[in-house]
Amino acid sequence: MKYAESKLDDRLRKWFQSDNSRALLRGISLEEGALRSLTSLDITFEYPITAVAGKNGAGKSTLLAMICCAFHADKSGYKLPKRNNNYYTFSDFFIQHAEEISPEGISIYYDIAYNAWKPSPRLPEGVGRGYQERKKSRGGKWNDYDQRVHRTVVFLGIERIVPHSERSQSRSYSRVFKHAPERGWERKVMSAVGYILGKKYDDFRFLEHSKYSLPVVRCGAITYSGFNMGAGENALFEIFSTIYAAGDGALLVLDEIELGLHSEAQRKLIEKLKDVCLEMHTQIVCTTHSKEIFECIPPDARFYIENVKNSTRVVQGISAEYAFSKLSARQGLELDLLVEDDVGMALVSSALPTNVRSRVNVIEMGSGKLLSRQLSAAYLMNEPKPIISIYDGDQRKREGENLSHAKRMAEDPDDDFKEWFENRIGYLPGDVWPESWLLQKAMECTGKLSVAFKVDEASLYDLISSALQAPKHKELYALSESLSLPRQVVLHYVANAVTEGFSEEFIPLGIVVVAALARAA
After folding, report:
1. Which residue from 362, 320, 326 is spatially nearest to 345, judged by alpha carbons?
2. How many other β-carbons are positioned within 10 Å of the β-carbon of residue 411?
3. What's residue 520's pLDDT?
């Protein structure tokens, strides 16, 4: 399903892209050298919540470590209770055994929106997008940590989901934890966690001893501590408490954000994080293995990282469906067939015969631009598995634009790129957007559809005519409301009737798919 940006998304984006007062991280690039499996990369952040997916060993955790080392901090700034410093250095993350070779010859650039740069010809007022470099020469050390832009950074790793009953320190201090002073944000944390888990908390506070803390909640007459919380519940209290404790404008870096949470809770977590990011001006970068997390954030906030032939490739704007098909067993199918949305998926799935459909993985991408982008990524990665993009019919007149976009994303491709691209694209029938084309054809299939929808043929004809007057891409919603049926049910019946009644119009599509399968053989 195509991601629909909300008013909250729009507010978050406008704030994030215009604010120079909080040293927001707007980009990171590894210009020289290699860190673990990461080689040259360049990432731009356009939204305050960023999620990174990829297979194990692709470099996700290494990227988080690089991001943590972007900033320094004032001595009075927030730090996690168990840390000695309120800032991070590369030695916090890159630890070598005596037999391992320390990384050398590395140069990392951080793109930061900041209002206190030293004035320069490019930034005469010292305000705007500037760059800082962290480098490590051969045989040398990382340069000038204390010269970094100051900002609070907090890293939460996977240890946050270890139950207190399994933490040796918590068990040792179980009888000596004492009430901690209230910070003023406890009710906000309690409300956020309660919403995510569907629970009503009447009280929440922390108990503390030395550097260690223990959450305690009350639900009605029952009071229980972190010793008797689930892993996800403990993790949520830590995440939201950390955001509020870190204060305005902090950067929160999270490894595997979804750990300990079921699917519904993951979606609600992102909902609440959006609210809190706007309230606290927090920036969040996380890794994930969850499709639900990807689906809940805008496409340009999603990154898929991959190591191909010892070279790092990063794809921005990837669909959740495609990203997680790359991580799943469905890679065993012979062909990835990309479509713009669920209408394209319904038409393609209905039009292809079973013997072809069983060999194809049909994936929604969200837009024509993303189809072009994914083709360019496949070209760059030289993926062994074939891929084709089936654009909506109204994209025919934009083929040149889509080719140009894919070519730009492919980073100076060979001269054969145009031919390569054209061999991997096809179109849905018609020259208008598919909802309009589909319902225009449905008007000629009212006999069959009237039986499926249990409405007389004349009335159905009028309902379809009326639905065609709805705003662009809303036609199926309008028809489904008139029929008092879910949109997906209406789409299913209409797609089946039209692909059967106008099968000749899908012949060019079939040719493209069969040709792609032949190349795979």
Report:
1. 362
2. 9
3. 67
